[in-house]
C-alpha cells in the first residue's frame, strides 16, 4: 500500500523529460471528431491549464489522458515511456489522479475515510490478515500529515463527516485524496466552479501548494482570472485541435479568449 509520504515524493522524472506527454492524439465518435491530432506536455512542478469553449475537446482530451477514453491514434508517454491505458484504473495505478466536478466523496464518511476510500489499510499482523481489521488510527494520522503537508488550514479535524463540511472543504478533501495517491499527476476539473470567492482562493492556494510539493497539475477551468493566477502555461483547445499554448506573461486574458473563440491567432 502506498503511503501519503511516499505519494508526495514522486518517482524522479529524467531531466528535461515531460512527466506526461501526448503526441498527436486523435479521438472520433462516428463522424464527430473529438480530438484532431492534439499534443501537450506537462513538466514536473508545473500547473498546466486547459481552456476552450464548449465542444472544443477539453473533456475528450482529459479522458484520453486519464484512461476514460482510448485514443484512436497518437501516443501517451509517462516519464518518456509510452503507456496504454485501458481504463481509469490503469491511469490511477500509474499515478494519475483526477478530481471531477462531482468530487465523488462519500458524505457519510469522515475526512480520513474519504482519503482512503477504496484503498483502506488493514492493521498489521493477524488482526489485519485474518480478522480484516482496519488501521483506522494509522489512516487518520496519515490523513492529518497529508492535510498539514498541503497546507489545508480549513480541515482541522479529519474525524468529522464530510457532509458537515462546506463546499470548499469538500473540494479540499477530494484534492487531498488525489494528491495522496497521484504520485505523478493530479488533474482538476473545474475545481472552483461552485465555490464562493473565499473558498475559491483556498482551492487556488492548494493548487499552488501541490506545485510546491513537486506534483504537476492539469487544471481545466472556465474561470480566466483563476487560470491566469495559478497557471504556468495555458493550453487552448478549439474545435478539437490545440489552437495555442501560451503563458500568463506572454498573453492577456483578452488574448486567450480571442484565440479560444477564433477571433485571433497566437
TrEMBL record:
Residues annotated as domain ABC transporter: 20-264
One term of GO molecular function: ATP hydrolysis activity
Record-linked InterPro entries: AAA+_ATPase, ABC_carbohydrate_import_ATPase, ABC_transporter-like_ATP-bd, ABC_transporter-like_CS, P-loop_NTPase
Keyword Zinc: no
PANTHER family xrefs: CARBOHYDRATE TRANSPORT ATP-BINDING PROTEIN MG119-RELATED (PTHR43790), SUGAR ABC TRANSPORTER ATP-BINDING PROTEIN (PTHR43790:SF8)
Keywords: ATP-binding, Nucleotide-binding
Pfam family, one: ABC_tran
UniProt-recorded name of the protein: Fructose transport system ATP-binding protein
